[in-house]
Amino acid sequence: MHERFPRVAKTANATPEVAAFFDAATSTLTYVVTSPESNQCTIIDPVLDYDEASASVGTASADNVVRYVQENSLSVDYILETHVHADHLSGAHYLRRLLGGLVGIGAEITGVQSTIAEIYSDSSPLARNGSQFDVLLEDEHRLAFGSLDIRVLHVPGHTPGCVAYLIGDALFAGDTLFMPDSGTARCDFPGGDARRLYRSIQRLLGLADTTRVFVCHDYQPNGRSLQYVASIQTHRDHNIHVNQTVSEASFVTMRRQRDATLGTPKLMLPSLQVNVRGGNFPRHPITGEPILHLPVNKLGAVGTRDIEDIFPRQHERVDAMD
Question: Cα–chain-centroid distance for residue 227?
């Protein structure tokens, strides 16, 4: 299910206008941020639809963004990723082809690419230098954006490469923060670290009280209606994982215990190989067609045996040709 019309949060001229697009299949929010008194916009965390059972790709979510941009005569400056997502495929490559703009991600993507290439045994060779993206963004880098700028904040923890984007009074936190009644994201992915996440969040909580925090996911706990923005002050007071009464030690203990109960995201294996390529697909080495790889027993789930124990190489048999 995809929402045809975006939810728009209008603000005073000193701050950007934010349109939110919710993809119910992955509980992901994509944002189109428009600089005040201009037609310049930035797209953050776009989604490409993917049906796991049929391995089918669709563009309904991304096409809603395209339609909004075109109907409002907007010009896309940037398409920004907060991190390499493990729960949905990125629509960045598709949107760049249709709308233009520079695709950007945190500069730590190079280390993430190296880690992910090992999971897939580099089955489709992956350049590990970030060259799939137009701009690699260091901490405190600022991108010119109409009458404002986009401040990049490196916020490792959920992954080592996570960044948040501060645009005027609007903070796009990626998976660093969820809504206050949902808390924070897991830290058990490769390179994740609960202690680093806590410290990254403390950095964000030091921003102005009235800063609007836009989250990348809303899982609508207890069946409540969709929510995707709350102030920094609200997070300080009410975030169930990191409000001002929570110490680093207690957060780390909580996060590790909670993460131990979580399963692998169902789209993790399809997502990672696409998202490290900026939303592009690996290619078949002979036909050149888009392809997805499914590495077996590589994610370290509890009880998983080494695949070589089950299918040892020395016992492989080449079937005779009749």
Answer: 18
pTM of the model: 0.90
Query: Where are the domains positioned within the chain?
Result: 7-307
Q: What is the pLDDT of residues 280-318, one digit of tens each?
A: 999 998 899 999 998 888 776 656 667 677 777 665 554
- Per-residue pLDDT of 182-191, as tens digits, reads 999 999 998 9
Three-state secondary-structure class, residue 75: strand
Which pLDDT value is given to residue 251?
98
Considering the four listed CATH numbers 3.40.50.300, 1.10.1040.50, 3.60.15.10, 2.40.50.140, the one that applies to the domain covering 7-307 is: 3.60.15.10
What size, in residues, is the chain? 322
The residue with tokens 């520079």 is 102
104 contacts 81 by C-beta, under 8 angstroms: yes
- Dihedral over alpha carbons 51, 52, 56, 59 (to 10 degrees): 40
End-to-end alpha-carbon separation of the chain, Å?
Answer: 50
